[in-house]
Write a structure and sequence with these properties.
This protein is α+β, with helices and mostly antiparallel strands and about 50 residues long. About 25% of the residues lie in helices and about 15% in strands. The radius of gyration is 16 Å and the shape is elongated.
């Protein structure tokens, strides 16, 4: 018999959307997170959000 012990963990994930001018908004949000020293384990995005 194989037993697997799973520990619950929490990951901070930030997902950014695409859409031209929304990139400027996302940039401001990222600056605010950086100012508050908020860290993310995973960052993903599409289009401008991926840059």
């Amino acid at each position: 018999m194989i037993n697997h012990k799973h520990e619950k963990s929490t990951e901070n994930v930030l997902i950014l959307q695409g859409g031209g001018s929304l990139g400027a908004f996302a940039c401001g949000v990222l600056k605010a997170f950086a100012k508050k020293n908020v860290k993310f384990d995973i960052i993903a995005g599409t289009s401008i959000g991926g840059i």
